């Protein structure tokens, strides 16, 4: 769910099952994007805790071919206000019909929609759109009537968690779940082709079944991942990998984490941080990052075999998602609780840029960058997490 301020509007997408499930019927499922209104006055949108149950409008509805890789996250662009909508390849191993590379399909794409300027039903029909929206004029295929004008970028398998860097809004990150070998984080650009299923991450992909044909490597200018990891680097006892995308950390609670992109593996109790090195180069270095519990955590920390060399890490369960609040604190949604990045000293770690606590250490100082990023750089050292009330906090 994503909110768009200052209006009292709430946006929601879901996948709806239709009829009997046999895993392969065309349009057996539908992806739906709807608008709801928040139960709050327009002057106090941030205080809303629920939405009115009646749908205000149906923005988007489209049938899906298989039971997996459906719709992902929805976001509003921080500078253009358009709705960015992530869509998986529709499922089945190896995207057999090559939807992700087909510019006449919306599967395996990131879409960019104008939901504030809805066209007439006649215009919607003439453009064969999938709902009540219009197409931004600067979308890469907006002027080509043979292609889907909603497309902003293509070549994805399952880009279900994405975010904009709050300090550098032109930096748009999407984590795309791999098939057999590689999990990736992509830096999204207008019209970019991110390779699936010609490539899985940096590797050439060889599909087992190709009724939809193949895309030649020479016919695309694939953009390779900015960050990522091989399946072989995560917890081998789990035997599976699925990336969960996060955020570039812009809070001040842990100044040594500032400017680093945080991401995780859904299954393996593994987290990474990535840093653009040098700045504005497009090149990233990633570090598998240990984490530990705050001494103030009211919930006991159960240790589990971690990623990589098998270090003992707190067991968070499955890492489903990340969140960011208005103070730029980063939260981790896991099957055992909601966690927050906290002050390094709460876990016994030293960060030279950390300021003395002004309270009991559970509340972060006002948001803002550290005074010296050079002194704040900390590569590969642990991350701290602590739980206050229902929030379990971590330290990276």
From TrEMBL:
Region listing for Disordered, in residue ranges? 356-376
Q: What is this protein called?
A: Glucose/Sorbosone dehydrogenase domain-containing protein
UniProt xrefs under Pfam families:
GSDH
Which superkingdom, per the lineage? Eukaryota
- Per the UniProt record, the source organism is Aegilops tauschii subsp. strangulata
Q: Which residues form the Glucose/Sorbosone dehydrogenase domain?
A: 51-207
InterPro entries in the cross-refs: 6-blade_b-propeller_TolB-like, Glc/Sorbosone_DH, Quinoprot_gluc/sorb_DH_b-prop
What's the source species' lineage? Eukaryota, Viridiplantae, Streptophyta, Embryophyta, Tracheophyta
């Amino acid at each position: 769910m994503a909110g768009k301020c200052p209006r009292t509007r709430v946006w929601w997408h879901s996948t709806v099952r239709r009829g009997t499930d046999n895993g392969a019927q065309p349009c057996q499922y539908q992806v739906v994007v709807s608008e709801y209104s928040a139960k709050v006055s327009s002057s106090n949108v941030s205080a809303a805790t629920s939405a009115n149950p009646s749908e205000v409008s149906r923005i988007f509805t489209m049938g899906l071919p298989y039971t997996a890789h459906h719709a992902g996250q929805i976001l509003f662009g921080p500078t253009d206000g358009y709705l960015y909508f992530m869509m998986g390849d529709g499922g089945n191993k190896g995207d057999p019909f090559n939807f992700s590379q087909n510019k006449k399909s919306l599967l395996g794409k990131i879409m960019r929609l104008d939901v504030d300027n809805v066209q007439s039903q006649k215009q919607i029909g003439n453009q064969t759109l999938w709902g009540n929206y219009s197409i931004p004029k600067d979308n890469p295929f907006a002027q080509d009537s043979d292609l889907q004008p909603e497309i902003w970028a293509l070549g994805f398998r399952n880009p279900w968690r994405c975010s904009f860097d709050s300090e550098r809004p032109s930096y748009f990150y999407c984590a795309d779940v791999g098939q057999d070998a590689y999990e990736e984080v992509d830096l999204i650009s207008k019209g970019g082709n991110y390779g699936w299923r010609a490539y899985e991450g940096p590797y050439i992909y060889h599909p087992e079944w190709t009724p939809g044909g193949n895309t030649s490597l020479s016919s695309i200018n694939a953009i390779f991942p900015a960050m990522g990891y091989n399946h072989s680097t995560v917890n081998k006892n789990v035997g599976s990998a699925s990336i969960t995308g996060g955020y570039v950390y812009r809070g001040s609670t842990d100044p040594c984490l500032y400017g680093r992109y945080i991401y995780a593996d859904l299954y393996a109790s593994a987290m990474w941080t990535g840093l653009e090195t040098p700045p504005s180069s497009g090149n990233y270095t990633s570090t598998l990052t240990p984490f530990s519990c705050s001494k103030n955590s009211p919930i006991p920390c159960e240790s589990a075999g971690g990623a990589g060399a098998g270090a003992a890490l707190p067991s968070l369960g499955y890492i489903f998602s990340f969140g960011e609040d208005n103070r730029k604190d980063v939260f981790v949604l896991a099957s055992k609780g909601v966690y927050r990045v906290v002050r390094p000293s709460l876990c016994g770690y030293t960060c030279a840029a950390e300021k003395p606590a002004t309270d009991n250490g559970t509340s972060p100082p006002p948001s803002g960058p550290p005074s010296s990023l050079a002194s704040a750089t900390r590569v590969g050292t642990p991350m701290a997490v602590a739980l206050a009330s229902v929030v379990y906090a971590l330290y990276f």
